[in-house]
Design brief:
The chain has helices spanning 3-20, 27-40, 43-62, 77-103, 107-111, 113-131, 139-152, 156-167, 169-172, 185-203, 209-236. The protein contains eleven helices and no strands. With 239 residues, the protein is mainly α. Helix 6 (113-131) packs across helix 7.
């Protein structure tokens, strides 16, 4: 193991500690506030978010739009992560620009950022999987992408559950259904909605939407990057 791998392993161990950390006493309060916000959200916005999330997840499982990348073989972890940084730079910049552009244009255009941001996140995850040497043409690898997505954007309780599942992925995936319609859309939608609601709702407010939209998307992409890189390191170090 070289110095880069040792540092990456140490980062992974620290990340694992965060993933296994029990929910704080304030998490229940935060959830209550979030539920009240959900009740205030107009049906139109809820429908757009829910439809976008379900369509995205189905596209991931079918894989028809995202499986063109070939897995990267026979290279070091350092070289893989150089590619990973280049990838996140591209997708984060695109997401930031989308958040700023749509946020500056008011409610109707602002709503368009939901599916755009989802698409950028998914494309990044497919590219990252290939960078770490996993073949996204494999249905199980596409399932893993959805679990990584959930890990990044779930509440504390759900995070612990998903982390346990992906940390034992080879065993866990054997019992998962192969039918697309068997996927738990409702939980997936709710967790993602709850995670992003506040920032994305503020993006729709005239006058501050541009700044909030850009900042929110930048932070969300950073969160996804950190989670995904460590989720794939988890599997690389187990090989």
């Amino acid at each position: 193991m070289d110095n880069y791998e040792e540092n990456a392993l140490n980062e992974l161990i620290l990340w694992q500690g965060k993933m296994k950390k029990k929910p704080s006493s304030t998490s229940g309060i935060a959830k209550g506030i979030q539920d009240k916000m959900n009740n205030l959200m107009p049906d139109k916005i809820q429908n757009i978010i829910n439809t976008s999330i379900e369509n995205m997840a189905k596209l991931v499982l079918v894989g028809s739009e995202y499986t063109s990348k070939q897995p990267v073989f026979n290279t070091s972890l350092e070289d893989r992560e150089i590619l990973a940084k280049k990838s996140i730079d591209f997708y984060r910049n695109a997401a930031t620009a989308s958040g700023a552009g749509t946020g500056a244009s008011g409610l109707i255009v602002g709503l368009a950022d939901f599916p755009i941001l989802l698409s950028l996140k998914v494309k990044f995850l497919f590219e990252l999987a290939s960078i770490y040497g996993f073949d996204v043409r494999d249905y199980k690898e596409r399932l893993y992408i959805l679990y990584v997505f959930q890990l990044a954007f779930s509440n504390d309780k759900r995070r612990i559950e998903i982390y346990d599942q992906i940390s034992n992925w080879d065993s866990y995936v054997k019992d998962l259904p192969t039918d697309v319609d068997s996927f738990d859309w409702k939980t997936f939608q709710q967790e993602y909605r709850d995670y992003i609601d506040l920032a994305k709702m503020l993006q729709l407010v005239p006058g501050i939407g541009l700044v909030v939209g850009a900042y929110a998307n930048y932070k969300l992409m950073n969160k996804l990057y950190t989670t995904a890189v460590n989720a794939y390191r988890l599997r690389v170090f187990k090989k």
